[in-house]
């Protein structure tokens, strides 16, 4: 049984001025299945944004839009999803989390999801 790989957007927003909003839209435009967790439960053009931590199956990539001070409470959750990689967008860099990810053999990169998608190397 093939599992469809997904991108989890942590810090998703329905505010069009936020980079997390733009990332969700661009991921969808490029054909990437997206799941999302934000500050509040909401909907973004048919995508349900969860407020609670959901055990999503098939998460391949987590892209972070949470500042480092807000990430610690999600360490175990993200590691437990067993993604292939975590993308730290500008402003989310976190050496403490890098170490934990390395310890669990999860790749990480510091890059802008939007730029990666634009360049075709997401």
Keywords:
122 residues; alpha/beta; seven-stranded mixed sheet; 5 helices; 7 strands; 31% helix; globular
3D architecture notes:
The protein is α/β, with parallel strands linked by helices. 31% of the residues lie in helices and 27% in strands. It contains five helices and seven strands; from the N terminus they run E-H-E-E-E-E-H-H-E-H-E-H. A seven-stranded mixed β-sheet has the order 3-4-2-1-5-6-7, sandwiched between helices. Strand 3 and strand 4 (47-50) form a beta hairpin. It is globular. It starts with 5 loop residues before the first strand and ends with a helix.
- Net shape: globular
Could you give the distance between the termini?
25 Å
Topology pattern, helix = H, strand = E: EHEEEEHHEHEH
Q: What is the mean pLDDT? A: 94
Number of strands: 7
**Main beta sheet: strand number and arrangement?**
7 strands, mixed
Instruction: Write out the strand line-up for the largest beta sheet, numbering strands in chain order.
Output: 3-4-2-1-5-6-7
Radius of gyration: 13 Å
Q: Give the helix proportion (percent range).
A: 25-40%
The portion of residues forming beta strands comes to: 25-35%
- Poorly predicted ranges (pLDDT <50, ≥5 residues)? none
Number of H- or I-type helical stretches: 5
Helix/strand-derived class?
alpha/beta
